[in-house]
Amino acid sequence: MRTKPNFRILPWARSYTEARLRDYHCVYSTTRTAERERQFHWVGPLVINEWSAFGLAERQLELTQLSELHEWKVGSFREDAVGDYVASKGINVLRAPTERENMARLSAGLLDVIVTGRATGEYLAKELELAIEYLFTFYYAPLYLCTAWQRCQ
Q1: Are residues 117 and 60 in the same domain?
Q2: How far apart are CA 4 and CA 76, in angstroms?
């Protein structure tokens, strides 16, 4: 019996968890990493995600590479491959529940820098009318649609 697909926008960590654990659930989009490889069936790559760092425009930070972030308050969000990658480089990453929360923390001065996909960061900043500054890109990651591997067999 076929059913119509039901598309929902959920917080990232919830979407990611449901795709891992529930029948007939998938998540778009996610980064294919070695840690995630065996958990999912992968469709793609569909697009390239430019992992980037941003600060508030008014701060005029002159940062050009990840190694310069060790002394700064860096934000990402739960279950995010971008934040995981940055943390793997020895940088302390403060995790928020969502990317919108990171924007609020950046605006409030609780963070100096956020790391996220460039298109996502620019989109959210525009939506929230927050003046951010693109600092640098540190990785180009293909994005995929994925669903739990064992449920595709």
Answers
A1: yes
A2: 34
Sign of CA dihedral 34, 36, 41, 45: negative
Q: Which two tokens stand for residue 149?
A: 């591997």
Residues in contact with 94: Cβ distance below 8 Å, sequence separation at least 6, in sequence order = 73, 74, 75, 76, 105, 111
Q: What is the pLDDT of residues 78-111, one digit of tens each?
A: 888 999 999 999 999 999 998 899 999 999 999 9
- Residue ranges in the chain assigned as alpha helix (H): 12-21, 81-88, 99-107, 118-127
Which residue is it, tokens 């279950």? 79
Domain assignment of residue 71, given as a range: 49-139
Q: In angstroms, how far is the first alpha carbon of the chain from the final one? A: 17
Q: Are 146 and 74 in a shared domain? A: no
Residues 57 and 131 grouped into a single domain: yes
Residues 87 and 126 both lie in one domain: yes
pLDDT tens digit sequence for 32-51: 888 888 888 888 899 999 99
Specify the amino acid at residue 143: L
Q: Is 32 among the domain residues?
A: yes
